[in-house]
Here is the input.
Amino acid sequence: MDELVSLAKRRGFIFQSSDIYGGLQGVYDYGPLGVELKNNLKAAWWRSMVYDRDDVEGLDAAILTNPLTLRHSGHEDTFSDPLVDCKNCKARFRADHLESDVCPSCGSKELTEPRPFNLMFQTQVGPVADGQNFAYLRPETAQAIFTNFKNIMDSTSPKLPFGIAQIGKAFRNEITPRNFIFRVREFEQMELEFFVKPGTDEEWHNRWVADRLDWWERQGIPKDSIELLEVPGDELAHYSKATTDLMYRFPHGLEELEGIANRTDFDLGSHTKNQEEFEIHAQVKENKDSNNKLAVHDLETKKWEIPFVIEPSAGVDRGVLAVLNEAFKKESLEDGSERIVMQFKPHLAPIKAAVLPLKRNNKDIVIKAGQIKRQLSRLGLGRIVYEDTGNIGKGYRRHDEAGTPFCITIDFQTIEQDGTVTIRNRDTMKQERVSEEDLADFMLNHINNMPE
Here is the structure.
């Protein structure tokens, strides 16, 4: 983990937030390479969930959440962790993270009894802080999907089974943020709520577990690095009938990368029930038919039915950490030196290619390098950079650590002889010459073709 954290800061992947003022615990900023890697991972998820399927729609809902939403979803009552304090050093810990009754900081046994600590951030809404005008920063992206269920049904008319996908920020006031970006207070989630006919939920749950394993493998996380954990009944969330966690071997140990939960009809049922109560309390005078319910009309039975939902939910930040961990390689070279290389899958690499002029004081080489950089940028593959350092070897090493799949060198042969460029492969370090005319096809074939 220390090597990853060092690399992340050195190469501009991830920084401690507000670092110049001592940082803010459990909050991190993504640097120039980190934001590209993060966006590429999200784009791969979105393509897999929405673009490659015909049964999923997308959503981008607000972060500020009406307190009634989280009251009726059960979060106000249940979204908490057990908190203990050390009476000696005043440190605080999650009780379920302690291996013994001894304080990890000072060794004292003077610990308080565990008490529930609500994880949700509350914020004032409007100009007057009177205790009534407040909202929560959402602790998960799922509830906005459920409260928008009827809107999406009305606007897209989907048929079961179908899903609603969302990527977005969530906030949890963690007692003990830890292990770099694994457990933080501000994070992003990639969540799908997949609605199915009751009675088919167990089959769909198994199908989504297999699908998610395959997807992570395509992102560079091998299946033998993941263990499946069937969450015991007494540890299930209040909404869950069954949950399978994909447990990945992070640098700090085996922990959850993604959870696939069978949420049954808990959420839609709860919001439907409380919506009816809200309308009665507010004396809303309208036809109380099933259009007010978060339900689907069954054409066979002619009845309205609340579907069950399967939820694959992954943390973007945990995904980034897993991808970084798998990509990180140390290699001993023939000359006795050592190189660090980030072997990202090409579609995830923050920089797709670097264009390097052999001589930065040669006008013709520099002009040609700039032209090729602009041509490749227009392909829409992602970020292409112009690397004008004057030292090709150091440029290669720098881009090995950045995870750039290809370095393209423009030299005298390019402009004086046959118009070919040298392409250096990040993983093999082998070089080949490719004509300028074939360069676009080469890049499209090696970068744009995401693994299916």
About this structure: The chain has a mean pLDDT of 89. The longest strand covers residues 253-264. Residues 258 and 314 are 4 Å apart (CA to CA). The chain is about 30% helix and 30% strand.
